[in-house]
């Protein structure tokens, strides 16, 4: 069983990240943040545009902070739901093999798992650029779950697919949560409270941690 006292998840030291908007205005995502994100199931809440997805990409190492250092004390998945994880011109299977090699995985095992889990059939041989967002999410779900990560990053895709696929995905994640944890972004407060123990709210470049996800949800609701 997972023991949340065994390790920290990710350490951020004086981390800042901002984006320059088309208007020329600089929008801060995180300002000089020093904190430890614990090894727990954490729901991330915030307004649209607050930078929740950007925060997940920072944790995954897909983008780098403007300043500061991020230390990862656990293996972290790519963000499920982030379409930039795959090359547009490669087929689904080619993407699976490519990512598997990057992570040093048994490629054929991963391919077989994704083929069964994703239920994409012949579309796995088609270029990724032809995939719908739902098909891309199925591919990402299967690929991520085929690998043993300590932390899974989830970005707004727990409701992809039909009811049967949703139930299969939910069961798979509950099984993974016995030994791993989730950092999850969702606009569904019900989903966050189902899967998560703790919460983080991102607002105006400030990250606030809550030991109870219900307190994070309440703080988010108070914004409106």
UniProtKB/TrEMBL annotation:
Pfam families: ABC_tran (PF00005)
The keyword Transport is annotated on this UniProt entry: yes
Native source species: Maritimibacter fusiformis
Organism domain of life: Bacteria
GO terms, molecular function: ABC-type transporter activity; ATP binding; ATP hydrolysis activity
Coiled coil: none
Family assignment from sequence similarity: Belongs to the ABC transporter superfamily.
Name of this chain's protein: ABC transporter ATP-binding protein
Domain ABC transporter: from-to ranges: 10-223
């Amino acid at each position: 069983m997972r023991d949340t006292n065994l390790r920290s998840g990710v350490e951020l030291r004086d981390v800042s990240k901002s984006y320059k908007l088309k208007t020329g205005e600089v929008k801060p995502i995180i300002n000089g943040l020093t904190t430890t994100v614990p090894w727990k199931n954490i729901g991330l809440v915030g307004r649209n545009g607050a930078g929740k997805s950007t925060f997940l990409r920072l944790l995954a190492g897909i983008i780098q902070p403007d300043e500061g250092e991020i230390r990862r004390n656990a293996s972290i998945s790519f963000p499920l739901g982030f379409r930039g994880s795959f090359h547009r011109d490669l087929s689904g299977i080619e993407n699976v093999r490519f990512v598997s090699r990057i992570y040093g995985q048994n490629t054929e095992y991963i391919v077989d798992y994704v083929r069964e889990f994703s239920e994409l059939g012949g579309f796995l041989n088609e270029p990724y650029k032809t995939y719908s967002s739902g098909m891309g999410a199925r591919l990402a779900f299967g690929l991520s779950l085929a690998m043993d990560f300590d932390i899974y990053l989830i970005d707004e895709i727990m409701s992809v697919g039909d009811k049967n696929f949703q139930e299969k995905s939910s069961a798979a994640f509950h099984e993974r949560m016995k030994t791993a944890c989730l950092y999850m972004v969702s606009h569904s407060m019900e989903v966050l409270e189902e899967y998560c123990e703790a919460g983080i709210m991102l607002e105006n470049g400030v990250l606030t941690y809550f030991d109870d996800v219900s307190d994070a949800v309440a703080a988010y609701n108070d914004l409106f």
